[in-house]
Design brief:
With 188 residues, the protein is mostly helical. Helices cover 65% and strands 5% of the residues. The protein has a domain of 119 residues. The protein has a two-stranded antiparallel sheet.
Length: 188
């Protein structure tokens, strides 16, 4: 257990530090989000409309009073999707009080991710003497993350490809770099 905790803690520090580098110092995420000169007027309009914290997709059927499967809601959703095919759409993550940075929570989430990866990978790590194979197993975690996250969001939610590529690159690099540590530390 001690080895698992130490490996996970150091792995989380590496993962967290890579996240800082990739978002703050390196140009990986420079164009993940785009600037618009209309940002002040758009934010003012959203605040004036009384939006509450949440994720909003537009256009969309009104789901505010839908609690379970509702055939009428699904029919309306299908009609809106068909009527708006090829037209502009948007997804907005709106926070009334703005972004609240929480570095400790970010580190704890990184620790949880690396700890869970270690729990999955230790059986594989103990069956091979090959550093490369242990590293490759860790990189596969990054592949699963990219397929289940950015690629599915691109496919089903219309997340732009420019954003998706940045997230894929970051996930593969973060798990690849963290995997160097894990492959070395969990050697036989």
């Amino acid at each position: 257990m001690k080895k698992l905790l130490i490996g996970s803690l150091v792995g989380a520090i590496i993962y967290f530090f890579w996240g800082f580098l990739s978002w703050a110092l390196l140009p990986i995420h420079l164009h993940a989000y785009n600037y618009t000169p209309a940002q002040d007027s758009l934010l003012s309009a959203m605040a004036a409309s009384g939006l509450k914290d949440g994720a909003y997709a537009m256009p969309m059927a009104d789901n505010r009073n839908v609690g379970a499967f509702d055939a009428k809601y699904h029919e309306e959703s299908e009609a809106i999707m068909k009527a708006n095919k090829g037209k502009p759409m948007a997804t907005i993550y709106y926070l009334e009080d703005g972004y609240q940075e929480n570095i400790l929570r970010g580190f704890l989430l990184d620790f949880l991710a690396v700890f869970a990866a270690c729990l999955l990978l230790i059986p594989a790590f103990t069956t091979t003497n090959s550093f490369f194979q242990r590293w490759w197993f860790t990189l596969l975690i990054g592949l699963v993350v990219t397929v289940c996250g950015p690629l599915l969001n691109h496919n089903w939610m219309g997340v732009p490809w420019s954003y998706t590529v940045d997230m894929i690159l970051d996930a593969l690099l973060s798990w690849g770099i963290t995997g160097l540590w894990l492959a070395w530390y969990f050697r036989k």
